[in-house]
Amino acid sequence: MAIKNPFLHNLARRLAPSLYHLVSRGLFASCRVRTQGLEHLQDCLAQQPFISACWHYAVFFHLYQVKRQQLSLDPAARWVLMVSASDDAELLSGALRLMNAELVRGSRNRGGVAALKGMIAQVKNGANAGIIADGSQGPARIAQAGAVLLASRTGAPILPSAWAADRCWRLRSWDRTMIPKPLARISYHYGPPLAVPEGIRGEETEQYRLELEKRLNALYREAMTAVGQETGEQP
Questions:
Q1: Is 231 part of any domain?
Q2: 8 Å CB contact between 140 and 92
Q3: β-strands 128-132, 178-180 pairing
Q4: Cβ neighbours for 33, distance < 8 A, ≥ 6 positions apart
Q5: Among 136, 137, 64, residue whose Cα is nearest residue 101
Q6: CA 123 to CA 79: how far, in whole Å?
Q7: What stretches of 87-201 show up as alpha helix (H) in DSSP?
Q8: Alpha-carbon dihedral angle through residues 47, 116, 138, 148, given to the nearest 10 degrees
Q9: CATH code, 125
């Protein structure tokens, strides 16, 4: 239910990120995580910068995983993340700021070109990038071209990842966002990095977009199968 009182609305927007940050840390820390393909992450960290890509359904635990695992392997790593410019993304943006992440705001329908240029500049300056491959509005598990264009313009490889939990909540959203329940068993999968040639356009961009989509969906199926979840459901 929307909060109509402007004061209460602004107060909720200011408190929600801190509350989410505290609750999610406790919840996610209770889960048992098994990582597959860790060598792919280690290879990327050894040759920074790189682009971390996942599907939208995975975003909340994915961010925790970045903080816990990737930064533990390299505490000095810089991260810049693309977040939707919509009001709905304020909670996520506030939580990311608490994680000391640099943000670029934009989406396909609102400031997307400027956001991509900002991401290119940051990656060229040495920051690793985080992108939701199917965007902020979907369709679910259909890759958009943003990650491929960013890789082509910067030379940074794309590291795909996906996860699944044996016990989770799934939101009634377009992507059926997944949140693990306390003490859940999680299977987290990294795939081989995808190198994209410099300056590709048109059909070549589409070729690599489809390849990224294929790899992410393969990881998604592997993760779901590993924890005994059905994969036939379309989120």
A1: no
A2: no
A3: unpaired
A4: 65, 186, 188
A5: 64
A6: 9
A7: 90-98, 112-124, 146-154
A8: -40
A9: 3.40.1130.10
- Domains in the chain: how many in total? 1
Residue 216 belongs to a domain? yes
What is the distance between the alpha carbons of residues 29 and 27, in angstroms, rounded to a whole number?
6
Cβ count near 182 (within 10 Å): 11
The phi and psi torsions of 162 (rounded to 5 degrees) equal -155, 155
- Could you tell me the residue range of the domain that residue 148 belongs to? 6-226
Q: Compare 188 and 136 and report the one with higher pLDDT.
A: 188
What does the chain come to in residues? 235
In DSSP terms, 102 is beta-bridged to 80
Is residue 107 helix, strand or coil?
strand
What pLDDT is recorded for position 66? 83
Whole-number pLDDT of residue 3: 45
User: Is residue 131's pLDDT more than 50?
Assistant: yes
To 5 degrees, how large is the angle CA 130–CA 84–CA 26?
Answer: 65
Q: Give the whole-angstrom CA distance, residue 174 versus residue 235.
A: 7
- Look-up: residue for tokens 């990582």? 35
Higher pLDDT, 173 or 88: 173
**Is residue 78 pLDDT above 50, yes or no?**
yes
Is residue 234, in this structure, part of any structural domain at all? no
Distance CA 103, CA 61 (A): 18
Question: Is residue 235, in this structure, part of any structural domain at all?
Answer: no
Residue 213 carries which DSSP code?
Answer: H
